[in-house]
Design the sequence.
């Protein structure tokens, strides 16, 4: 087939445009949040003393970190799905949530006696954290991965990993409302491990499905 | 591009022809002759990708970087499929000039192969519109189909051709 013939065929097909990529990603992200909320409400639910906890800085700061992660991952995914839009500088944004968390960890070194550091980091909920964040996040990940087929990511594995981070950020936001370990020491020890599982699944899936 | 997204076929045809010229130049510049990749195949694969992914273009955004990124992806993809990672030739001026001097090859070997893999209905519709140059309405009359069915078959046929590129070795 000549290229000019192909152009004629493409032109005849001009009327069939799919929904804009960013709109689809936005809606599926909303759907992912709803899915996470449903699983969370049906299983572990918020901790019993959430009203009291909500007055403490440590509890609230967990949400600053997890929402920062979800927000930066969403924004980056929007750019990764658009050819030519994501540059190296955009990747720096992913460091926002870790940087916030490390600042809190640094502050925690001064407010917690050294003898309790290890105990605070281990916490009581490490197994819960490593189980529930992936369990809450897998549904959102399944909802979000198709955006890689709808969009046009030129870096499939990276885009899949960022999709996993977005699902992980959403899942961690809900899990944090249940977990009674609020110290940044605990968060920095266990949350990244749990979220990394979702990112790894996302990266592997991205390589498989994001071919176009 | 905005007009094309709004369904202006004439504007879309002009745009695709310009894009084809840009991609052809880029593909010839980066693929040395004898590498086993026909630059015209890259042109056709890129045009298909641009068509099927045009909903990822940022309205009001620059079209240049978007087209360039898709072209680059398709060139790397074509080389990867043929198992040559490191042979992208960036600045072989002489070879580029030689390639420019060659007559434009009238056929895309690979797209012809991909066409053969379509279902009969899709292939008849795609061929009627592209090779024979019929309109949607003429095709519908010739094949005894409804116009909407022709449009659907055309769209699915183009998507199938694009996805076959990825599976080819």
Sequence:
């Amino acid at each position: 087939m000549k290229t000019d013939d192909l152009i004629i065929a493409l032109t005849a097909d001009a009327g069939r445009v799919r929904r804009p990529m960013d709109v689809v990603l936005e809606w599926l992200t909303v759907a992912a949040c709803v899915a996470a909320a449903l699983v969370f409400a049906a299983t572990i639910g918020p901790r019993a003393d959430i009203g009291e906890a909500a007055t403490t800085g440590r509890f609230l700061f967990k949400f600053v970190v997890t929402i920062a992660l979800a927000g930066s991952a969403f924004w980056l995914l929007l750019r990764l799905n658009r050819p030519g839009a994501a540059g190296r500088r955009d990747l720096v944004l992913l460091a926002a949530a870790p940087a916030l968390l490390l600042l809190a960890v640094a502050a925690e070194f001064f407010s917690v006696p050294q003898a309790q550091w290890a105990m605070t980091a281990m916490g009581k909920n490490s197994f819960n954290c490593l189980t529930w964040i992936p369990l809450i996040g897998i549904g959102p990940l399944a909802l979000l991965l198709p955006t890689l087929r709808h969009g046009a990511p030129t870096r499939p594995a990276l885009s899949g990993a960022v999709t996993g981070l977005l699902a992980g950020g959403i899942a961690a936001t809900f899990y944090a409302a249940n977990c009674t370990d609020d110290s940044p020491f605990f968060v920095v020890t266990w949350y990244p491990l749990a979220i990394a599982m979702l990112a790894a699944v996302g990266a592997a899936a991205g390589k498989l499905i994001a071919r176009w | 591009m905005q007009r094309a997204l709004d369904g202006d076929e004439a504007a879309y045809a002009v745009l695709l022809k310009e894009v084809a010229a840009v991609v052809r130049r880029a593909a010839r510049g980066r693929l040395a002759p004898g590498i086993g990749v026909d630059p015209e195949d890259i042109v056709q694969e890129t045009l298909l990708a641009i068509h099927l992914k045009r909903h990822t273009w940022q309205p009001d955004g620059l079209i240049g970087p978007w087209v360039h990124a898709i072209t680059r992806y398709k060139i790397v993809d074509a080389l990867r499929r043929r198992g040559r990672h490191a042979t992208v030739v960036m600045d072989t001026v002489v070879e580029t000039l030689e390639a420019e001097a060659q007559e434009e090859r009238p056929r895309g070997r690979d797209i012809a192969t991909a066409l053969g893999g379509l279902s009969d209905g899709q292939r008849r519709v795609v061929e009627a519109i592209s090779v024979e140059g019929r309109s949607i309405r003429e095709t519908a009359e010739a094949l005894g189909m409804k116009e909407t069915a022709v449009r659907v078959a055309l769209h699915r046929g183009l998507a199938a051709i694009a996805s076959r590129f990825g599976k080819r070795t």
Notes: The first helix of chain B runs from residue 2 to 5. Chain B has two domains: 1-104, 107-169.
